[in-house]
Prior knowledge:
Layout: H1 34-57, E1 78-79, E2 86-91, E3 99-105, E4 113-119, H2 136-143, E5 148-152, H3 171-190, E6 195-205, H4 207-215, E7 223-229, H5 241-254, E8 260-264, H6 273-285, E9 297-301, H7 319-332, E10 342-343, H8 368-378, E11 384-389, E12 394-398, H9 403-412, E13 419-424, E14 427-428, H10 436-443, E15 467-470
Parallel strand pairs: 1-10, 4-5, 4-6, 6-7, 7-8, 8-9
Antiparallel strand pairs: 2-3, 3-5, 11-12, 11-13, 12-15, 13-14
Helix pairs in contact: 1-7, 3-4, 3-5, 5-6
Amino acid sequence: MAFRKLLTGWVVAGTTCLVSVAHAAPLAESAARGATAAANANAQAAQSRDTARAALAGGPLGNANVPRIALDDAYLPAVRADLNEQVIRVPVDASGDVTLETTIYRPDGPGPFPMVVFNHGKIPGDPRLQTRSDPLSFAREFVRRGYVVVAPNRQGFADSGGTYQQDGCDVASNGLGQASDVAATVAYMSKQSYVDPNQIVVAGTSHGGLATMAYGTEAAKGVRALINFSGGLRQDACTGWQGNLTQAFGAYGGKARVASLWLYGDNDSVWSRDLVTKMFAAYEGAQGGEDRPAAVAKLVDFGSYKNDAHRLVGDRDGVKIWWPTVEAFLASAGLPTAVQYRVNTPAAPHGTGYASIDSVGAVPFLDQAGRDGYRNFLKQYSSRAFAVSDSGAWSWAEGGDNPMNVAISNCEKHSSDPCRLYAVNETVVWNDDTAATTAQNGANGGKDAAPAATASTDNNAADNSHSLASR
């Protein structure tokens, strides 16, 4: 698809534009159970949709009292903790010379399943240094509901082939270029036997949100919905970048073919509320025409999220904020939302009573720098973990999908011996008699097959946004 040919009249400036989007410091189941199970799942889905719609009707989601998602799913078939993760290469074109490093998460069975393509964001600096996109918190909710989740790294990112094209200050052209890789991924995956090519969702965060909306200008026939999490491209080195970005969304809106849901927060470190309002107004205002009906677009302000709304989709804590809105949107598009599989989330070890959480002096093996690090850990949001080794190495992690895994992994990068969890959330889990391997299994939710988490930002908040500090 020649996405770049869709827009004309854009001036490409020769200046290389900088992107400032990071907000955190990196370190880094059976058919035999059939009728009863289906009835239970459908009833549960209907109740959940009613709750979601009520939340939408009540004002900004960020100001609503959203209940925690309760999934009575013990009767359902189980999916492995790693969501059957597989990394493949997706060809950009027929030649196969350039391929995209792509992560797939899927339910058990032959399918066909509906599919979600998730598009990552962009951290500052060299995109080659960006880690493979692995949106576990996002993927878990969709696999739980019977979807295949596909997360491609676009050209020039991580281990994908090709080169990232900035397109100077022409943000509209940049988005269309990124959309070409989204199109290649949708086309390739739609041919797989386990994918239903008539039930496709395309979603993205930050720069991936921009790519998602650009893709909507020439989306494949089977694409039923677009989800934009805090999408855009910030180019501080470009004069008038806010206007460029607003115009780009206006151009995409004029050619939009698919309904879209936009989710933005009040305390986003990248986009101001005023800019978000202008971007959406430009997109919505350009909708429809004599030869094309309007593609419905809805903007939801979910309020403030932790220290930065831009990190929402990369945080497991964020699911309870965005899923009710997304569920209602998918249902309105005729897409499935009933829970069909049991998927476990990472489980924290039990508290040991070794010490109180705020007793800095009780943490073993730390020097003064380590004690200062633990004090910093205590200031973080409650989804957090602190790890330490016998040799005094330490690390803390907050947010993302599994801060326990991240804390241990980064601690061991600086240690000659194994690291163990000392504290998780509000509880000390340290036990002098606990083997390091037990602590590692605890960090993996008790599943040996679970892959190690990595730390990255922007969503990228996607893409696992973590605040980290490590010795």
